[in-house]
Amino acid sequence: MSAQAALSIVGATRDYAVSLHGERRTLRALRGIDLEVGHGEVVAIVGESGCGKTTLSRLMLGIEAPTSGTVTVAGKPISSYHRIERAGLIQPVFQDPYSSLNPRQTLGTIIAAPLAVRGEGNARSRQAAAEEMMQAVGLPPHLVNAYPSQISGGQRQRVAIARALIVQPRILICDEPTSALDVSVQSQIINLIGALQKKFRLTVLLISHNLAVVYHMAERVAVMYLGMVVETAPTEQLFANPRHPYTRSLLDAVLPPTPGRRPTWSEAIAEPPNPVDPPSGCPFHPRCPRASDICRSAMPEPTRGADSMFRCHHPLESMA
Amino acid sequence: MTALIALEDLRITIPTAQGRVLQPVRGIDLSVARGETLAIVGESGCGKSLTALSLMGLVPSPGRVSAKRLTFSGQSLIDLREAEWRELRGPRLAMIFQDPMTSLDPCYTIGSQMTEVMRTHLRIGRQEARERAVSLLARVGIPSPAARLEQYPHQLSGGLRQRVMIAMALSCDPDLIIADEPTTALDVTTQAQILGLLARLQDETGIGIILITHDLGVVATMAHRVAVMYAGQVVETGDTAAVLTAPAHPYTEGLLQAIPTPGRTARGALLGSIPGIVPPPTGAVEACLFTERCPYARPVCAVPVPLVPLPGERAMRCMRPLDERAGEPGYAALSEVMS
After folding, report:
1. Which of A227, A243, B180, B292 could be stapled to A310 by a disulfide with Cβ–Cβ 3.0 to 4.6 Å?
2. Dihedral (CA of A180, A182, A183, A187) sign
3. Which of B221, B245, B264 sits opposite A263 (nearest CB)?
4. Are the CB atoms for A243 and A318 separated by under 8 Å?
5. How many Å apart are CA A286 and CA A294, to the nearest integer?
6. CB A266 to CB B160 under 8 A?
7. % of chain B residues with pLDDT over 90
8. pLDDT at residue B189, rounded to an integer
9. Full-model pTM
10. Distance CA A68, CA A10 (A)
């Protein structure tokens, strides 16, 4: 682990006990994650539902502890921080600003809540800080006494961002920050997160299934499949020259708003496997056009490049 | 080509308890031909879903539908009685909803839900309906279809549930399918599979499809023609390729600039954004409804705007033609001001 990492995850696994048809089973949501995020870096985590993206974000927020492995923030294990100290370092922005804001609190109270929890200042100074933060995220300060129901979806997401940033955290974890919003509003939130990231030199973890948004915002992408990172690379490189067949199929599924391109559809069913009953060997082999015998029996070891990694027995060709 | 469905000046009004009248749909003209896919695209609250429901006679009470013309295969759908709607819904017109979990009944097996529809409308026996259900599931690409009939909706993944919905929609050989955000709840990889399936079924059957979506990527891949809706009106319509490559209405232009597109928008650059919010669906239309959010708005826009035909079977609802707006600062200027 390098000293300058803002966030470092080593060998993290997370198991849940589940019951399948009355039988006790283990659901292995994360199966050994290694991920290092530098200060001020914007890293995207992509993958289908159920791949463990959100479990990983809960580990990074310290809401849950890994079953094994470590999560380190600013050089210390995340479990060694006090809850309040941790919240000052790392803050979330959730997907749905309709359910993540308390409908009975005013925007000022919501945004200043982290300060109140920390016992910083008095009611008046917290209100002033909230108004300043509202300005920074493009909310008119006169809304400070308004309730979430009185503002639009885009404004609510601005409130969520203001609340996250008021304690000046170093790391922001954005879990699908735009997918509940309309297209015209999405772009405002994307612009806003980009501007704030530069202004406050924030480290941003962007969890998303929208690869166009990821391409636009992230410097580096980690592709997850069934609880593992199967490929990571700088964004341009990953989009231009994916090595893992799963990354390729995700990129092929992107539908750009430009006419004339009917994607190469394979309409055959190819759905993610059940994490309670994962396939042997490489978890992607049941869906993989390149799968061979070794893929069915052995998990591929990571192949590392200068700043990239993939796990595949039969990778796509490198064009570099 | 004769229109499968044609509507002129469709309006939907909803009286509220406070004595106001909401007008979520304020005068829409559309038509869909056999074998054609028309996409209706717009943001939340633009009236696209209510428009779709009105074609199925499903606008919830106390909403009221009126139109100069609303015909399906030449038959007027205005003021049909419920019994007459039931003759159409299922056998002639079918609908696929966004969330297949809430549109399938969790208490009944896939088989019983599928056969109920066919036994009611096609008046066939239990055994025949079951055989048809098996072949329908096979046709939408579901493996071991006979076994699936015994399963309950919760035992299927989202993609499989949506395939079941499509199989049910096809079960009585309808002429038109209305698909309301059919892939919005699905993963991108599953979305591609479902869209591919719909396209293939259309090629095989010549069915007409009305695709309701907010996703211009889905429009680009699926639709022959597109109607862009804003605040209860169609603001632009035409051939999909033409509209998406050279949008004529400022709103369409704004939507396209707001979408990050690898290869077209620069990474990390400011995206265009449309300031402000949609006007409330109340009161008479006295000006262009988009004027408050439009970078090209001028005093001339303070009148109700008609849908003006353009060359190439296109039309748009804007007082300022494209060549007149050319060179004026557009959305880019606005988004710089905002950030």
Report:
1. A243
2. negative
3. B221
4. yes
5. 13
6. no
7. 72
8. 84
9. 0.90
10. 9
Burial label, A27 (beta-carbon count in 10 A; 0-12, 13-18, 19+): middle
Distance CA B208, CA B191 (A): 20
Mean pLDDT for chain B? 91
Chain A: nearest CA to B108, how far in angstroms? 19
Q: What CA–CA distance (Å, rounded) separates B112 from B311?
A: 51
b/e per residue B139-160 (b: at least 16 CB within 10 A) = bbbbeebeebbeeebeebbbbb
Other CB atoms closer than 10 Å to residue B271's CB: what's the count?
25
- Cα–Cα distance measured from residue B103 to residue B108, given in angstroms and rounded to the nearest whole number: 12
3-state secondary structure of B199: helix
How many CB atoms are closer than 10 A to CB A1?
A: 11
Portion 54-113 of B in contact with A at CB < 8 A: none
Instruction: State the residue for tokens 């549109």.
Output: B103
State which residue of chain A sits closest to B239, comparing Cα positions. Answer: A259
- Angle in degrees, CA A8, A30, A280, rounded to 5: 130
Structure tokens at A134: 């509202």
Between β-strands A90-93 and A303-304, what pairing exists: parallel, antiparallel or unpaired?
A: unpaired
CB contact residues (below 8 A), chain A span 20-49, against chain B: 48-49
Question: pLDDT by residue (tens digit) across B145-176?
Answer: 999 999 999 988 888 999 999 999 999 999 99
Selection from B40, B45, B42, B39 nearest residue B14 by Cα: B45
Task: Answer yes or no: do B160 and A268 touch at CB < 8 A.
Answer: no
Q: What is the pLDDT of residue B116?
A: 93
Tokens 């779709």, located at residue: B52
Lowest mean pLDDT: which of A229-233, A282-286, B173-177, B320-324? B320-324
H and E: helices and strands count for chain A: 10, 12
Contact status of B334 with chain A (Cβ, < 8 Å): no
- C-alpha B310/C-alpha B303 separation (Å) is 20
Q: First-to-last CA distance in chain B?
A: 49
Amino acid identity of B15?
P
State the alpha helices, DSSP H only, in B70-187. 82-88, 100-103, 110-122, 126-139, 145-148, 158-170
